């Protein structure tokens, strides 16, 4: 039996025709002489009817159970008006089966194959091939596939050359932890799985390819969070001889095409906003603002620096800031208890309590209202751009803690009160003019805000000279943000060895360390490297957003769980002692039994 | 200065126009008041002229050296007829430079940037970014990119879903040696880099995606040969509900489109030949025959079984074979010494000498001619399909040694005498009806000829039952061969657990071993797996052939050398003791210094 079309595509146009279909039994209703089966394939569901006039087929239908794989031949007939199902494409017809064959049987699945099924995450990952049969997961992976096709096609049309870079690469000391791959030929030596193709794509520009593109897998052995995976995919490009705004223009067109192809959305390029990093931090407390949320952070430091409320006045005196959000219409929605919860929520950022006020037609209410006389209250309300009915939430103290706290509260309250403005459902922004360095609490030192190959602004190059403060320098880097997520990160790269050496020195590399880690790149830059820049977009996150999901696991076929294991195959697994011996390795005894 | 076009694309159409170009100095000729520079970019070369009437530009030109990166503005002017260069696209014009800027300087490159440069392989890999600047390497990587684009587009047009499968996967005991990746979270446990996405794509068919495609990196820690790399790329697809000939038809169309898109060749589907594995072995001594070579192996066992030449007669008596090649017109081209060399060449296959005869108008000549009287000689010549002027080369003994020897001699002599018929430059063939198992000398046991998931022919299934000889079974597998290279390998897969278990038993897996290695697949097959099949084409080899190269390193941007190291970055490298400690590993002291 040779399939003639997908089950999910059979509709009124087929009425009167013979079709051959193959797929899975979604549901069977058995009335003895009459059996209905919902047949499922990747395109959807069609109803099959088996009746006594086709005894052999009926016999098959009586044997099958859910998730059996069957092939059937039959005629497409219109359903009675009363039987029509508007919810599915094939809802106006059914297939009167003339012959049927079981291609594979199935045990009762461990959970039902339907969206919203009540099964634990771990069980769904263990039986991923069952979970992936759900229409939602089929949709998610097709969205991801469409993004790749669209991205690929644009790149081809714009003369980018698709070049694969090695996955067995060299371990580098900067950035996150590398996954290592022991060498058998050189025991004690290791390849590293690359965290990105960054160095290779710069070398490809040095090699004169001019426009490079790759859908590249990247690997980071980091502690996992909800939206991180040990391996992830980037839409990675690099160009020569273009400046930052030319690259942003090109990427804008690219994203425009992807949005059109994948979600049929007409993105206007002028709707991609453009914020400096500083402006983004000031207005939203984050470098990845969700512009759909219609209220912003306001700086009240000047207004409250002499306030009777000591917490505010002292915060400013001690070199900190006082900022506020006026959450529109939120005053009635948050009780004291609710607000206490908000205060607990921001403790993770280092905030020590949450000051708040409700704005009424008659002035301010709340525990700290008494510290503000009429004039002070008016000044406060005006500066915070608040109106009657709003809930004012304050942050006071260290600027970074205030920013993180108010960013989190802005997102949280907007979500809880459904304040996200979806009139423009996709809000893109370029965040530009980043600091070149940022202070890392984790490492207790200055690190590159993006990576050590990011070109400083021309006018800031002197900050890298000896005796100057490199941390004042800003960079020619640009992040693309969508609806509060960082979609991608790009920059103009350093293409001159002298600047690259200064950059590494500013990162506290000794000459020897720089040579050992990046000597090949520094040497390459001595042989005529062109000005270059590029970007990498995170495919997982883009697919997650365009598929309407909130976890990247939902758009990855076989993801790792939160402990970096894959519950279906149980990877990683212990290996034979012989395999280790070949690699010249021994596993520490006290740890090898941990799993 | 904003580039207006590529240097290599400027031609007569631009005469009279201003252009801005950027690229590398290929060559400079300095006549003081007049300087010529050949400017190179990825599209080719254009001649720049600098003269005294643009003093600033001339000054720049006098500073630059080979491989400096410069940007120039100027007017395109026609060259005098006498100065025209037909070899390059821009040969009829030159650019009279009005302003110029040095974007990057360069040390004298360690080898000249030109095709056919005389530099060692290791040096070229160490300075790969310089080697890749050569027009030939630029072409090679663009051929590879074009193949990917074409393959991708076809798959999209044919409703394949592009799905990425994990690179951090589970180690499996069958096949080549895995590259391992130590887990930090579970010290003593390891991921494995997949040798192919085989199991994942079967699971995706089980998940109902119906048509899967991926450009997949694969990893094998094998000893390297000329055409092997530790990592390589497959154009990987899988389908459900199609039989072998339907899949071959689809793949035929796919290859047809790739050949058209990449080398503008009109492949007719009926020109893809179709040979059983047995026929291929009989006629060519190999499962990847080069059909462009117009002479074949002939079986003379019957003709010589009673020969006076004891070597032949005994070979047949002892259960072996006697076969021959009649190399057309080769008699005059090979001296005894040359033929001795051919004999030495095939010793690697286990051949113990090479019997030969030259065919003349007057009969046979050569050391063994005396054993053949007129009738025997005529019978021999007729059976070998030889004619006057041919050189007959014999193999006698074990069938596999004879096959390997005569295959090698057929390829070698065809190459040496330029006998390859290029009237049809691309000779594709499907090799079908393979044995399910083959005996591995390396492992000293029977292994799967393709892999353990290959479906036996329906009529051979009973051979897997207990008490029968599984090695008699043939498989529903098919290889695609091009010009003597295996391009890809595919099969219908086992989709039923009972057959899969029998297959693993035939491969001497105990029940426990089968469970440990493939338990998740066996379990998955219990939940309604559809009939499925697919293929993987080797991208590296296809790119090598279509780029006209004879080593896959020429079509890989950053390949490993023959010792699996990457001379530019020196990967693999030793890593910090701290990194090893985090992984719960120790490197054996006696081996860690080996590199």
From TrEMBL, chains A, B:
One of its GO terms (cellular component) is cytoplasm. Keywords: Aminoacyl-tRNA synthetase, ATP-binding, Cytoplasm, Ligase, Nucleotide-binding, Protein biosynthesis. Its EC number is 6.1.1.12. One of its GO terms (biological process) is aspartyl-tRNA aminoacylation. The keyword Oxidoreductase does not apply. Residues 141-567 form the Aminoacyl-transfer RNA synthetases class-II family profile domain. Signal peptide: none annotated. It is an enzyme of class 6 (ligase). Residues 198-201 are annotated as: Aspartate. GO terms for molecular function: aspartate-tRNA ligase activity; ATP binding; catalytic activity, acting on a protein; nucleic acid binding; transferase activity. Its main location: cytoplasm. It is found in: Cytoplasm. The keyword Ligase applies. L-aspartate binds at residues 174, 220, 450, 493. Homodimer. PANTHER family: ASPARTATE--TRNA LIGASE, MITOCHONDRIAL, ASPARTYL/LYSYL-TRNA SYNTHETASE. Belongs to the class-II aminoacyl-tRNA synthetase family. Type 1 subfamily. Catalyzes the attachment of L-aspartate to tRNA(Asp) in a two-step reaction: L-aspartate is first activated by ATP to form Asp-AMP and then transferred to the acceptor end of tRNA(Asp). This is Aspartate--tRNA ligase. It comes from Fructobacillus durionis. The gene is aspS.
């Amino acid at each position: 039996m040779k399939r003639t079309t997908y089950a999910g595509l059979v509709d009124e146009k087929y009425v009167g025709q013979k079709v051959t279909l193959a797929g899975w039994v979604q549901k069977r209703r058995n009335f003895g002489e009459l059996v209905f089966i919902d047949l499922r394939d990747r395109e959807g569901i069609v109803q099959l009817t088996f009746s006594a006039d086709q005894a052999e087929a009926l016999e098959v239908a009586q044997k099958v159970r859910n998730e059996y794989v069957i092939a059937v031949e039959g005629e497409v007939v219109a359903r009675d008006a009363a039987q029509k199902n508007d919810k599915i494409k094939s809802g106006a017809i059914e297939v009167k089966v003339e012959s049927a064959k079981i291609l594979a049987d199935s045990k009762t699945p461990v959970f039902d194959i339907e969206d919203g099924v009540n099964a634990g995450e771990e069980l769904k990952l263990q039986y991923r091939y069952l979970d992936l049969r759900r229409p939602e997961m089929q949709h998610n992976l097709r969205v991801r596939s469409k993004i790749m096709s669209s991205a690929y096609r644009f790149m081809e049309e714009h003369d980018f050359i698709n070049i694969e870079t090695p996955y067995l690469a060299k371990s580098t000391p900067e950035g996150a932890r590398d996954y290592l791959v022991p060498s058998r030929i050189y025991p004690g030596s290791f390849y590293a799985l690359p965290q990105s193709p960054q160095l290779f794509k710069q070398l490809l520009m040095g090699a004169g390819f001019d426009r490079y593109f790759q859908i590249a897998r990247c690997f980071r052995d980091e502690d996992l969070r909800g939206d991180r995976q040990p391996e992830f995919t980037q839409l990675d490009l690099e160009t020569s001889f273009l400046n930052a705004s030319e690259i942003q223009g090109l990427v804008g067109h690219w994203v425009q095409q992807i949005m059109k192809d994948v979600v049929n959305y007409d993105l206007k390029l002028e709707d991609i906003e453009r914020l400096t990093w500083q402006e983004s931090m000031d207005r939203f407390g984050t470098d990845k603002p969700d512009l759909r949320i219609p209220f912003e952070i306001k700086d009240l430091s000047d207004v409250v620096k002499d306030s009777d409320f000591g917490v505010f006045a002292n915060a400013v005196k001690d070199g900190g800031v006082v900022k506020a959000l006026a959450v529109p219409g939120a005053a009635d929605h948050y009780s004291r208890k609710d607000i206490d919860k908000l205060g607990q929520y921001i403790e993770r950022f280092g905030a020590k309590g949450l000051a708040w006020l409700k704005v009424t037609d008659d002035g301010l209410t709340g525990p700290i209202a008494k510290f503000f006389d009429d004039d002070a209250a008016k000044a406060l309300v005006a500066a915070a751009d608040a109106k009657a009915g709003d809930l004012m939430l304050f942050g006071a103290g260290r600027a970074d803690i205030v920013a993180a706290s108010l960013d989190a509260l802005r997102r949280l309250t907007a979500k809880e009160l459904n304040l996200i403005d979806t009139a423009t459902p996709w809000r893109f922004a370029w965040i530009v003019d980043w600091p070149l360095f940022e202070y890392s609490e984790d490492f207790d030192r200055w690190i590159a805000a993006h990576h050590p190959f990011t070109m400083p602004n021309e006018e800031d190059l002197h900050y890298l000279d000896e005796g100057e403060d490199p941390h004042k320098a800003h960079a020619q880097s640009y992040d693309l943000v969508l609806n509060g997520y960082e979609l991608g990160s790009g920059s103009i790269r350093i293409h001159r060895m002298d600047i690259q050496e200064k950059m590494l020195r500013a990162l506290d590399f000794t000459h020897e360390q720089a040579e050992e880690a990046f000597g090949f790149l520094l040497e390459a830059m001595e042989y005529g490297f062109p000005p270059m820049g590029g970007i990498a977009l995170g495919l997982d996150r883009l697919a997650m957003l365009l598929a309407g999901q909130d976890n990247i696991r939902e758009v990855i076929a076989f993801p790792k769980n939160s402990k970096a294991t894959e519950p279906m195959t149980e990877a990683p697994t212990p290996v034979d002692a012989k395999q280790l011996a070949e690699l010249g390795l021994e596993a520490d005894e006290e740890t090898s039994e941990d799993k």
